[in-house]
Write a structure and sequence with these properties.
With about 240 residues, this protein is mainly alpha-helical. It is built from 10 helices and no strands. About 75% of the residues lie in helices and about 0% in strands. α1 packs across α2, α2 crosses α9 and α9 runs antiparallel to α10.
Length: about 240
């Protein structure tokens, strides 16, 4: 009596190439690049919104109220960003482990000696940035560090985001930590933005130096933009009306 061979479902057959590709080095690099673009886009948009504080209390409070008016869409965006964030971290760690495992021990030692300061301290700076994100959310979004922020209301009855930011950055240690974390993030971006184009195959020897320099410029412009807010509070350019 012959035994019939059971073939896997068609859907499984179709998903296998995708799973194999995602597990490959090329797939992991593409995931890092695509999620990096999503996260970079969020950082840019977040900065543009934050800079509205320089147009006054009403401007940033109007911006914040507008975001809360589309709360369902906001949560969709947050979910996508959260998935992108963890996918970016996972793929980056997986690539690092695989690259180290594939290299001879002697080469690893020589590579470490030649590595940049950023490369050697990447794990530590990543931890600092992660801690910063959690503290920043706890301070201004969840309001657990400063529960009194929940009671700050402007003249129009809206949450007074302007006052929250000013009071938050009046703490010099919070401002220093914020600037340090943004600096580390910008340092990461200054190395990562240029490599995105190469990973996605839209670069060449002639264009890559332009992308690399452009990435550095964009990264440090972001740093200046974010750092300008706590510095403006500490120098009393931004203060409670």
């Amino acid at each position: 009596m012959s035994t019939a061979q059971v073939s896997p479902p068609t859907s499984t057959k179709r998903s296998l190439p995708l799973v194999i590709w995602m597990s490959s080095s090329i797939g992991q690099k593409t995931i890092v690049a695509v999620t990096g673009i999503l996260l970079l886009g969020y950082v840019v948009l977040h900065l543009l919104g934050n800079l509205s504080i320089f147009f006054g209390q009403d401007a940033i409070n109007t911006y914040a109220t507008g975001l809360h008016s589309i709360e369902p869409l906001l949560w969709v965006a947050r979910t996508i960003l959260l998935i992108a964030f963890f996918a970016h971290i996972y793929a980056t760690i997986k690539l690092t482990i695989e690259n180290r495992a594939a290299r001879p021990k002697k080469y690893l030692v020589e590579k470490r000696l030649k590595a940049s300061f950023f490369g050697r301290t990447m794990a530590y700076t990543g931890i600092v940035v992660l801690v910063f994100v959690i503290i920043h959310l706890a301070d201004f979004t969840w309001k657990t560090i400063h529960p009194e922020f929940r009671h700050l209301i402007d003249a129009q009855g809206r949450p007074d985001v302007y006052s929250m930011v000013v009071h938050g950055f009046e703490n010099i240690w919070m401002s220093i930590f914020y600037i340090l974390a943004i600096g580390l993030l910008s340092f990461h971006l200054s190395h990562g933005i240029g490599s995105l184009f190469q990973t996605l195959g839209i670069s060449n020897k002639k264009l890559q130096p332009i992308f690399t320099r452009g990435g550095v410029v964009v990264a440090w412009l972001l740093f200046v933009g974010f750092a300008s807010i706590p510095l403006a509070v500490l120098t009393h350019v931004l203060r409670i009306p």
